[in-house]
Design brief:
The longest helix is centred in the first third of the chain and has 32 residues. This protein is 69% helix and 5% strand. It is mainly α and 569 residues long.
Length: 569
């Protein structure tokens, strides 16, 4: 903005202000808000309009790391020991395959295109990292549930831990081969192990402190406790140069397994994390450098293509070998494309240790991040929509009016006031069942009791459709009857899904209005209703949840009320 020298407070206010506009932009064009914040940050940053000085963004670095720490803490809170064991059974192979495939494809691909071997190896390690803040906040924004969501959270955690370890080991190997090591390899490995162990210890101590404190402090004091612990441990991690991402992931896992108030703690942090997330992505967007993307050239393009191929192929191959669902097989890898924090931080470390080797690596990472951070959220959103883990009505934030429509509404209200007419009734929202659909294949009637339990472990419902070979609904399994069998070991060995079904007399079709679903739920105690195709042989498409119907109708009611209040005013 010319030669005018902004104070950092003004830069902060400007960033938050443009994020408000970005939120409207995201709603209007049906984009993930994360992408919109990144784009608007890129627009006002040095790469475009240059409204935000680079020095001001650097001064906000500690706030951005605080935002990352809170996101990782929230992610860790999802993993109780019981859940980790369950998720690890079907996700460990996916994660190992995806990490290995990404590393191999990127390293070999870059080497084939003339990249030095040491540089290709380090970039292969960095390619493993997935941006935790970007990925997890998109999942939270869309309120997604299902196997892809669950596996994504697990693989994001594994990717970043593996990236740190692989990068440190690879850099150690490169320096050893070049004869640049001042100390023994054993000493360097010992330092790495100590740093990781220190991260774990800090995380456990921080988690225990939060669980203990929230156990006797009033809830209104929880936020102060949470911020105090997080900021203190962030400072300790920075001072001792240990990986803070591991610290806060472990801290979240500790709280998940030691506190009865885990959900309330996360809800309390949401009051702060929402604002920090907005600032994090806007400021992060100002750091994206379009010129670095262009300067990365051929090697940058190779890195991008082979990294995306490695993520997708690694998950696809492992899911196919382990016979996991087509949803995980086809879309699990696409949810892991976003990349930022860990890769940027490690590339900076590479520059500090060896400028000659690290600078080209940093250029490629900074250049590729521009693309990965923008398209990553779009791929996550598409994956969740395609797999039915988020209803369409939740993915699309309907605005009341378009900008031009709002102008027309103002004119119409002014004309009505001059004529003395009453306010016109706004058109009602036409939410359909298809907009609320959560896809599921149900439980096959011949499934044994263990298969029924495996299905239920991935579900958040209390009612489960049962289908035959033609995908026709033959009934539903209700939780009360299931619980009776669950504690009878002798019966559970003989029972099949068809033995547990109860008659289901209601179903919905995609073109039914949401009001029809509401009417059916008034007469039903089930928490979801099957949605089937039209025709003589209806097939199961998915379910509609009572909570999703209520959420849609309450949103519609609030929208109408706001319009009436505006008209009345």
């Amino acid at each position: 903005m010319g030669d005018f020298d902004f104070h950092i407070a003004s830069s902060l206010g400007l960033l938050l202000g443009v994020c408000l506009a970005a939120g409207v932009f995201a709603d209007f064009f049906h984009l993930p808000k994360v992408t919109a914040y990144l784009l608007v940050g890129l627009l006002v940053g040095p790469s475009a309009l240059n409204w935000i000085p680079e020095q001001h963004v650097s001064n906000l670095e500690i706030v951005l790391k605080l935002a990352m720490a809170i996101v990782l803490f929230n992610l860790g809170c999802e993993f109780t020991i019981k859940k980790v064991r369950r998720v690890a059974k079907h996700c460990s192979f996916l994660s190992i395959s995806e990490i290995g495939c990404t590393f191999i494809l990127v390293a070999i691909g870059l080497a084939l295109f003339g990249c030095p071997t040491d540089m290709a190896l380090l970039l292969g390690c960095l390619a493993v990292a997935t941006a935790p803040a970007t990925t997890i906040l998109v999942l939270k924004e869309l309120r997604s549930e299902g196997p892809v969501t669950e596996s994504t959270g697990f693989m994001v955690a594994m990717n970043n831990f593996a990236c740190i370890v692989m990068f440190e080991c690879a850099f150690l190997g490169v320096r050893f081969l070049q004869g640049d090591l001042d100390v023994s390899v054993g000493s360097q490995i010992g330092v790495l192990v100590m740093h990781l162990a220190g991260s774990v210890v800090l995380g456990v101590l921080g988690g225990v402190a939060i669980s203990y404190g929230c156990g006797f402090l009033a809830m209104k004091r929880w936020l102060v406790l949470l911020v105090a612990v997080v900021t203190f441990l962030l400072g300790v991690s920075e001072s001792t140069h240990i990986p803070y991402m591991v610290t806060f992931l472990v801290m979240g896992v500790t709280v998940a397994n030691t506190s009865d108030f885990k959900s309330k703690i996360v809800d309390e942090l949401d009051h702060l994390s929402g604002l920090l997330a907005v600032l994090f992505f806007a400021a992060h967007g100002t750091q994206l450098n379009v010129r670095a993307f262009i300067a990365a050239g051929t090697l940058g393009a190779v890195y991008i293509v082979f990294r995306m191929a490695g993520k997708w192929l690694g998950v696809y191959a492992a899911a196919k070998i382990s016979k996991q669902s087509p949803e995980v097989r086809n879309w699990g890898g696409a949810a892991l494309f976003a990349q930022a924090g860990a890769a940027i931080a490690l590339s900076t470390i590479a520059v500090e240790r060896s400028p000659e080797l690290g600078k080209p690596i940093q250029d490629i990472i900074l250049g590729s991040v521009v693309l990965f951070e923008i398209i990553g959220p779009l791929f996550i959103r598409q994956a969740l929509l395609q797999t039915g883990e988020v209803p369409l009505a939740q993915a699309i934030h309907h605005t009341n009016l378009t900008p031009l429509g709002q102008v027309q509404a103002l004119v119409d209200r002014f004309r009505s006031a001059l004529r003395g007419d009453g306010p016109a009734e706004p058109p009602s929202s036409k939410v359909k069942v298809r907009d609320l659909l959560r896809k599921t294949k149900g439980i096959h009637q011949s499934s044994d009791f263990d298969a029924v339990i495996a299905h239920i472990e991935h579900s958040h419902d209390n009612t489960y459709p049962v289908v035959d070979d033609k995908m026709s609904v033959v009934g539903v399994i209700r939780y009360p009857l299931l619980s009776d069998v669950m504690f009878d070991h002798a019966a559970s060995q003989l029972v099949r899904a068809e033995d547990l079904i109860s008659e289901s007399t209601v179903c919905l079709h995609c073109d039914d209005p949401a009001a029809r679903a509401f009417e059916l739920f008034q007469d039903e105690t089930d928490d979801c209703i099957p949605v089937v195709t039209d025709g003589d042989n209806p097939e199961l498409l998915g379910v509609v949840r009572r909570s999703d119907v209520m959420h849609a109708l309450i949103t519609q009611r609030r929208r109408k009320k706001r319009r009436k209040d505006k008209d009345a005013g």
